[in-house]
Design brief:
Radius of gyration: 31 Å
Distance between the termini: 80 Å
Shape: globular
Protein name: Epithelial splicing regulatory protein 2
Number of strands: 29
Number of helices: 21
CATH superfamily of the domain at 2-199: Ribonuclease H-like superfamily/Ribonuclease H
Family: Belongs to the ESRP family.
Keywords: mRNA processing, mRNA splicing, Nucleus, Repeat, RNA-binding
Helix content: 25-40%
CATH class of the domain at 2-199: Alpha Beta
Oligomer: single chain
Subcellular location: Nucleus
Structural class: alpha+beta
CATH architecture of the domain at 2-199: 2-Layer Sandwich
Main location: nucleus
Length: about 700
């Protein structure tokens, strides 16, 4: 038997069903006995959605109203009634089993599975197998339109059936017409047999991927904006209803081995990938996720591996993988097993542990652990930030692809798939700079909606838009290059800035109120470096405090822009220059910040109206360049260069509360730059911004 099923949501209809995350509001179904060609009772059930705001298209097509839906039952109860009524109708027809049949894939894959997953209740087994009437129709009538162009109406027209929808209620006509189409396919001229139903995977299967595999680029997507703590199972749940290939979720890591909020996902075929692209900007919790096309080559770079060590570790399939970070470098397998304890036994004992080491054999402080079930993994995660030795240990869910990335690539200097263009040369500042000084002719907007653009800001400021300086709107981006909710605007005078702050403070933009503070260019720079600015005053950033490094973050200094053609000639040679000349110590100029070229590429002109670049550097590093290039840039702009006396050593793995006193005490007995605390220069990696407490220092 078949159960012919039709549904509608409160939003888009037809080919876009489910693409807007709107909830189900209507289900209509009827049982069809394929042998006796009898039908059961036709049932129509309204569904009460959490949000009863219907789209204009929904109102027009369905004729439903919020008032009528408000009296309906919620989805979980409607699905219970569905199961009971189907069982009753089957009993009347003398049948016991059935398979669903729907008009295309969208109702099952894009509506029912995602919505029930978000509402945390399970669908019955019947929703994991169904017939796609469009595909069955095209198989039966090969000369008909392509599957993607089929609709209930076009199929009915092809068979010469009645297509006047006005005679029946919305949903009822669709189900009756689908039943008539099925009976036509069963007639003597066709004798169609329903044999190969579509399937929905019950759960995501983990597993390794070899670099020798062939991955079709038409099956891979890139998901951006993921919460940093999300696992492969969380991503699979986001794509619930779509079939992900075994081991098809690969979380992307940055150059320090930390997750960067992106993942590559491989589906079983291009049809599933195309449905996944329709979930662009759907939500995972409170965050929207961007979904784009990717290539098989990119997937293999992230998920592929050939190491025997990794292959042996991942040979035990369907295991839950936990990543441990921050282990003491002297930690042994026995130490880790003792830390986890008997309540979370590791699969295979010591064989279920994989320590990550640098190419020279030194431990990185990371390890991966296998657990045979979710219960043991949950017990292990409860030990997050517990102490082993003298260090607290972080525990996260992980994936096979993450194991391969971390172990095989040993924290490469660049990510396998850069989220931004590859670094080229030292600083290439944008042509527009933020003004400095104490004149309070700027305003800061805080709490902007993340979807807000320049047009929204101009509309928000109203008549004051005419008082903005050319190139005076600066959108602040976060470390992933997306809006952070802040913006700085340079006004033509301090009076104009004061008026805007008074008029627009806590004014609404979309569904959020926005705070507006008057500030100066100097204060603006302070905020961008981690200071706090509000109506109570200004608190300096960490790098301006006396106990930390001196003010060496001249974040917006003017320098010559090196053309891209010339930039291509210069390649980074090392993290830091390897030699220093003693002669330079007599008059060492203040330090200048070098930005990786990613930032220069990221902060491009944001709008044609006020084309200033966003101005929140996400990382501070030092990339060496040919001495001639640096000297030429400095000569052209009179910009001071990083001081050259003595030699540099890098300290890594410092406690987070380390101060200058502890560092100097550590080097007791060695001569460092006397009476010159400029010799301590704070670094940060791409996973931490300069706004956080220092983890690494460089000593002159």
């Amino acid at each position: 038997s078949l159960v012919v099923l039709f549904g509608a949501t409160a939003g888009a209809y037809g080919a876009k069903l489910g693409s807007d995350e709107r909830e189900l509001i209507l289900l209509v179904w009827q049982v069809v006995d394929l042998h006796s060609k009898k039908v059961g009772t036709l049932h129509k059930s309204l569904v009460k959605a959490d949000n009863l705001d219907l789209s204009d298209q929904c109102r027009e097509v369905s004729g439903l109203t919020p008032e009528g839906l408000g009296k309906a039952e919620p989805l979980d109860r409607v699905l219970q009634q569905f199961s009971q009524l189907v069982s009753s109708d089957l009993k009347v027809l003398g049948r016991s089993s059935y398979t669903l049949c729907s008009d295309g894939q969208l109702l099952i894959r894009q509506v029912l599975h995602p919505e029930t997953s978000k509402k945390n209740f399970l669908l019955s087994d019947c929703f994991y197998s169904f017939y796609d009437l469009r595909k069955e129709f095209h198989t039966c009538y090969p000369s008909s339109a392509a599957v993607k162009d089929q609709t209930i109406k076009t199929m009915a027209e092809y068979l010469g059936l009645g297509t006047d929808e006005a005679d029946e209620d919305f949903g009822v006509w669709q189900v009756k017409t689908m039943v008539a189409i099925i009976f036509s396919m069963l007639s003597e001229g066709c004798n169609h047999v329903f044999t190969e139903p579509e399937t929905v995977k019950y759960k995501y299967e983990t597993g390794p991927c070899s670099k020798s595999e062939t991955v079709d680029s038409e099956t891979v997507i890139r998901a951006r904006g993921l919460p940093w703590q999300s696992s492969d199972q969380d991503i699979a749940r986001f794509f619930k209803g779509l079939n992900i290939a075994k081991g098809g979720v690969a979380l992307c890591l940055n150059s320090q081995g930390r997750r960067n909020g992106e993942a590559l996902v491989r589906f079983v075929n291009s049809e599933q990938r195309d449905l996944a692209l329709e979930r662009h900007k759907h939500h995972m919790g409170s965050r929207y996720i961007e979904v784009y096309k990717a290539t098989g080559e990119e997937f293999l770079k992230i998920a592929g591996g050939t190491s025997n060590e990794v292959a042996q570790f991942l040979s035990k399939e369907n295991q839950v993988i936990i990543r441990m970070r921050g282990l003491p470098f002297t930690a042994t397998q026995e130490d880790v097993l003792g830390f986890l304890g008997p309540e979370c036994p590791v699969t295979g004992g010591k064989e279920g542990l994989l320590f990550v080491k640098y190419p020279d054999g030194r431990p990185t402080g990371d390890a991966f652990v296998l657990f045979s079930c979710e219960e043991y993994a949950q017990n292990a995660l409860k030990k997050h930030k517990e102490i082993l030795g003298k260090r607290y240990i972080e525990l996260f869910r992980s994936t096979a692809a993450e194991v391969q990335q971390v172990v095989l690539n040993r924290y490469m200097s660049t990510p396998l798939i850069p989220t931004l263009p590859t670094p080229i040369i030292p600083v290439i500042p944008p042509p527009y700079t933020i003004a400095t000084g104490s004149i309070r002719d700027c305003v800061r907007l805080r709490g902007l909606p993340y979807t807000a653009g320049i047009d929204d800001i101009l509309e928000f400021m109203g008549d004051a838009t005419g008082d903005i300086k050319p190139h005076g709107v600066h959108m602040v981006l976060n470390q992933q290059g997306r809006p952070s909710g802040d913006a700085f605007i340079q006004m033509k005078s301090a009076d104009k800035a004061f008026m805007v702050a008074q008029k627009c403070h806590k004014k609404m933009m979309k569904d959020r109120y926005v705070e507006v503070f008057q500030c100066s260019g100097e204060e603006m720079n302070f905020v961008l470096m981690g200071g706090t600015l509000n109506r109570s005053g200004l608190s300096p950033p960490p790098c301006k405090l006396p106990c930390l490094s001196p003010p060496a973050y001249a974040a917006f200094q003017t320098a010559a822009v090196i053309p891209a053609e010339a930039a291509a000639l210069y390649q980074p040679q090392a993290l830091l220059p390897t030699t220093r000349t003693p002669q330079a110590s007599a008059a060492a100029p203040p330090a200048v910040t070098y930005y990786p070229a990613q930032a220069a590429q990221l902060y491009m002109n944001y709008t044609a109206y006020y084309p200033s670049p966003p101005v929140s550097p996400t990382t501070v590093g030092y990339i060496a360049a040919p001495p001639g290039a640096v000297a030429a840039a400095a000569t052209a702009t009179h910009t001071p260069i990083l001081p050259q006396p003595g030699a540099l050593v890098r300290m890594q793995g410092l406690p987070y509360n380390t101060g200058m006193k502890e560092i100097l005490s550590f080097f007791q007995g060695y001569q460092y730059a006397p009476d010159d605390y400029n010799g301590l220069i704070q670094l940060s990696d791409q996973a931490r911004s300069v706004l956080q407490a220092p983890k690494e220092w460089v000593c002159l």
